[in-house]
Design brief:
By secondary structure, the protein is mainly alpha-helical. The protein has one domain. The protein is built from 3 helices and no strands. Helix 1 runs antiparallel to helix 2 and helix 2 packs antiparallel against helix 3. The longest helix is centred in the C-terminal third of the chain and has 30 residues. The protein is flat, with a radius of gyration of 17 Å. The N and C termini lie far apart (67 Å).
Length: 91
């Protein structure tokens, strides 16, 4: 007997594990690289929510590319802000 795999349950489990990974990373060390890793996990989770729970993976290609671009642009903007803020405070 083959048990069907529920993609929502698998995705939810991955999201919970990614959250635990973020907490563990933050507890283990402090620094810019840890913050970068936590941001990367957060945007992985955002992309997963978009693709699975908002069903963007089944949407037309143009909508999917806009969502992918938004995730990448938002991650890049937040990462740049995160890395460059100490330089602006030093001025």
């Amino acid at each position: 007997m083959v048990v069907p795999v529920n993609p929502f349950l698998v995705s939810w489990t991955v999201l919970v594990l990614a959250t635990l990974l973020s907490w563990w990373l933050e507890a283990m060390a402090d620094g810019t690289l840890v913050g970068t890793a936590v941001l990367l996990v957060a945007f992985f989770k955002a992309r997963m929510v978009l693709m699975v729970f908002m069903d963007i993976r089944a949407a037309p290609q143009s909508i999917r590319w806009v969502c992918e671009a938004w995730v990448l642009l938002a991650y890049t903007a937040l990462l740049a802000t995160y890395w460059l803020t100490p330089y602006f405070h030093a001025m």
